[in-house]
TrEMBL record:
It comes from Pseudoalteromonas holothuriae. Pfam families: PhyH. This is Phytanoyl-CoA dioxygenase. The lineage of its organism: Bacteria, Pseudomonadati, Pseudomonadota, Gammaproteobacteria, Alteromonadales.
Length: 278
C-alpha cells in the first residue's frame, strides 16, 4: 500500500486527515494578506451595521472584532483560487468518490481572547453520504492557540455528542489533538466530533473553511435549488479550467449569493455536568 493509499484508509477509519505543505509559500502569503484586508473591510462594514447577516462580530475591551466571515467570495473572490489547488478539491473528490461542489466558504478568526469551541458535529444528520469539512490554515495552530481536537472514529456511529462527552469525562476515550502549521489543510468528515480549547497565546489563528458534498447527494437533496447548483457548478468548472484566464468578476457575479440554501444544523451537547476540555 502506498503512502497516499494509507492516508485515505486512515481518513476513513479516523474521520480526519492532514495534508502537509498543501500551499506554496507565495500563495500562503497572498492569502494571509488578503485575509487581513477582508478582516479590515468587514470590521468597517460591521461598524456601520452592514452585512451583519454574513459577519460575526464580538467586542473585547471596548473594541469590536470580526470572528467569522461567511459568503467569503463576496468579500474577496480571489479566494476561489483555493478551489484550483490539487490538494483540496481533488482530494475531496477522491474521498467522496465523485465530483463535488463547495456548499459554503468562510473565514474563521480565533483571537487571543476567544473561548473554546465545545464538542460538536458539523451536521446533525445520519446520512450515509460523506460530507467533508476542509480547513485551510493561514497560521500555525498548536495546543496553546486552541488547535483542533477530534474524537477519532466518531463519524462511524450514531452515538450522540452528549454520550461521547460522558465517555470523555469518565476517561473511557481520549481526544486527538491536531497541531498544524500554516499552509497545511485539515480534512474531516462532517460527522466527526471535534472542538478546540481556549486560546492561550497572543497570536490569532485564521482558517478558511469549505464544505464539500457529492453531486449525487446534492441532486437528491431538496435543500439545494437547481439555480444554486448551476451557479456552483459553473464556478467549479471555471476554476478547474487552468487554460482559462481567471476573471473573478465573472466567476463570482453580483447575484452569486442571492439564492439561499438551508444547511443542516450542527449537533452540540448542552448538558452542564459534561466537561469538554479533555
Amino acid at each position: 500500500m502506498t503512502q497516499t493509499q494509507q492516508w485515505y484508509v486512515d481518513f476513513h477509519n479516523q474521520g480526519y486527515g492532514v495534508i502537509k505543505q498543501a500551499l506554496s509559500a507565495s500563495l500562503l502569503n497572498q492569502l494571509q494578506q488578503l485575509s487581513l484586508q477582508v478582516m479590515e473591510n468587514t470590521t468597517a462594514l460591521a461598524d456601520n451595521e452592514q452585512q451583519l447577516e454574513r459577519i460575526a462580530v464580538g467586542q473585547y475591551q471596548g473594541t469590536r472584532f470580526v470572528s467569522r466571515v461567511n459568503d467569503l467570495f463576496l468579500f474577496a473572490p480571489q479566494f476561489i483560487d483555493l478551489l484550483a489547488q490539487p490538494n483540496i478539491i481533488q482530494i475531496a473528490e477522491h474521498i467522496i468518490g465523485e465530483p463535488v461542489l463547495p456548499i459554503y466558504e468562510s473565514l474563521l478568526v480565533k483571537h487571543p481572547w476567544d473561548n473554546a469551541f465545545d464538542w460538536h458535529r458539523d451536521v446533525n444528520t445520519n446520512t450515509t453520504d460523506t460530507i467533508l469539512t476542509v480547513g485551510v490554515y493561514l497560521d500555525d495552530a498548536y495546543a496553546e492557540q486552541g488547535a483542533l481536537k477530534v474524537l477519532a472514529g466518531s463519524h462511524l456511529n450514531t452515538k450522540t455528542v452528549c454520550n461521547y462527552k460522558r465517555d470523555l469525562t469518565s476517561g473511557h476515550i481520549k481526544a486527538h489533538h491536531v497541531d498544524v502549521k500554516a499552509a497545511e489543510v485539515v480534512f474531516h468528515h462532517a460527522r466527526t466530533i471535534h472542538g478546540s480549547n481556549k486560546q492561550k497565546s497572543d497570536s490569532q489563528r485564521r482558517t478558511i473553511y469549505f464544505e464539500f458534498r457529492g453531486l449525487s447527494h446534492i441532486h437528491n437533496n431538496p435543500n439545494f435549488p437547481k439555480r444554486w447548483v448551476e451557479q456552483r457548478q459553473a464556478l467549479v468548472d471555471t476554476v478547474k479550467n487552468a487554460a482559462q484566464e481567471r476573471r473573478y468578476d465573472q466567476a463570482i457575479p453580483s447575484h452569486f449569493y442571492d439564492c439561499k440554501i438551508i444547511i443542516d444544523a450542527a449537533e452540540y451537547c448542552f448538558e452542564p455536568d459534561c466537561v469538554a476540555d479533555k
